[in-house]
Amino acid sequence: MSISINGSTGISGVDGDASTPAVKGSDTNTGISFGTDIVSASTGGSERARIDSSGRLLVNTSSDFGSSTKLGVFNGSYALGSYQSNAFAYAFQFIKSRNTSTIGTIVQNGDELGNIVWYGDDGTSTAKIATAIQAYVDGTPSANDMPGRIVLSTTASGASSPTERMRITQEGRVYLVQVGTTFVTTAAANVNVDAGDGQIRRSTSSIKYKTDVETLDDSYADALLACRPVWYRSTCEGDNPGHSWWGFIAEEVAAIDPRLVHWKTVEVTYDDKGSPVTTPCDPEPEGVAYDRFVPHLLNLIKRQKEQIEAMEARLSALEGV
Question: What does pTM read for this prediction?
Answer without folding.
Answer: 0.64
